[in-house]
Design brief:
With 342 residues, the chain is mainly alpha-helical. The chain folds into two domains: 118 residues; 175 residues, Orthogonal Bundle (hpI Integrase, Chain A), CATH 1.10.443. It contains 15 helices and five strands. Strand 1 and strand 2 form a beta hairpin. Helix 7 packs antiparallel against helix 8 and helix 8 runs antiparallel to helix 10. The longest helix is centred in the N-terminal third of the chain and has 21 residues.
Length: 342
């Protein structure tokens, strides 16, 4: 099979001047102090590389981690960032190691020179394992046909709740932490938007965003992708709840009727890999949702508004369509020219 050269030369940009301008000003101050000191010991080229790496981290922190101060970063935040770099930005082990070194040097600088101001801060990068040289986790890109086959398999093994989970993942593009916060009171099949094609939640949901509390937005769910599986799951859910004497309105539950946690749903999707030829993770379906809507011809601005993204940077980031996947409306002109050559 011929290699897809566009994958071999993959490059996705997360930063922009607009997003860099929104980075937490205290983080910018620390970064500039670090780079000023770093420049006294390293070449100008190295300073440029380190600045670029720090911009990537802090834009990720802005988009995915509430733009928190660097000294508040925890190990699991760093784990999320490096997982993002490997799965979404497709870093090689060398690129991974360079980012690891940049953040470690930055952390050591803060620990050494700002110890009186940030007494409890420690360099956490030694806790983050580097990638082995011969291991690169490939990004998973799913088509609707592949996910439909997975849905059918879940039906065959009688997993209606997992079908409902996959359906809302495909239909909403919601994050893992948001999926378990959907409730039955949020879903009303008559509460629709955009010519009845989307269910609009009856109340806002808290999602990640700027500030420590994040932000609240209405969620939009592609009605026909989700509703059949939701209706199938609902009576089974009610039976489990009644048998266990539980009363709450979370859609997804454990076998004892308690609300499902992210770890619960993560355990479900880990089993789905057994029938797939590639690894499925929550963000891969968020990519599917974006790519699917764009492939149908929906405007980039509309997709951005559905997720309440502050810019179209995330639309570009989540769009997995390659140049060959896009529909080029003027190709008929080339076809006509070639016809005339005959």
């Amino acid at each position: 099979m011929a290699k897809n050269n566009s994958r071999e030369t993959f490059r996705k940009v997360i930063t922009s001047d607009e997003l860099i301008a929104q980075i937490n000003t205290e983080n910018i101050k620390l970064m500039e102090r670090f780079l000023k000191n770093f420049a006294t010991k390293r070449s100008p080229k190295s300073v440029v590389v380190y600045r670029s790496n720090l911009n990537i981290f802090f834009v990720w922190n802005l988009l995915y981690n509430d733009n928190i101060h660097f000294t508040e970063i925890k190990k699991y935040h760093l784990m999320d960032f490096f997982d993002f770099g490997v799965t979404e930005l497709q870093w090689s082990p060398n690129r991974y190691a360079m980012m690891h070194s940049t953040l470690s040097s930055f952390s050591t600088f803060i620990e050494t020179f700002f110890d009186e101001k940030y007494e409890s801060f420690r360099n956490l990068l030694p806790k983050i394992e580097k990638l082995p040289k011969d291991v690169v986790r490939k990004k998973s890109v799913f088509t609707k046909e592949e996910l439909d086959k997975l849905m059918d398999w879940l039906g065959e093994i009688d997993k209606p709740q997992e079908q409902c989970l996959l359906a809302i993942m495909m239909a909403s593009g919601a994050r893992a932490s948001e999926l378990v916060r959907f409730t039955t009171t949020m879903i009303d099949e008559n509460h629709t938007a955009f010519e009845g094609l989307f269910l609009e939640t009856t109340e806002e949901m808290q999602v990640k965003g700027r500030g420590t509390q994040g932000k609240k937005i209405l969620r939009y769910i592609i009605k026909d992708l989700f509703l059949p599986y939701y209706k199938k799951w609902l009576p089974i859910r009610e039976k489990i709840m009644k048998e266990n004497g539980k009363e709450h309105d979370y859609i997804f539950i454990r076998s004892d009727g308690e609300p499902a946690q992210v770890t619960t749903t993560r355990g479900w999707i880990e089993k789905w890999d057994t029938v797939l030829d590639k690894h499925l993770y929550f963000h891969s379906i968020r990519h599917f949702w974006t790519t699917y809507l764009l492939s149908l011809g929906l405007e980039k601005e509309f997709v951005q508004e559905l997720q309440d993204w502050s810019s179209d940077t995330l639309v570009n980031l989540y769009n997995d369509a390659t140049m060959k996947d896009r529909k080029w409306k003027n190709l008929d002109k080339l076809a006509q020219a070639m016809e005339q050559e005959k």
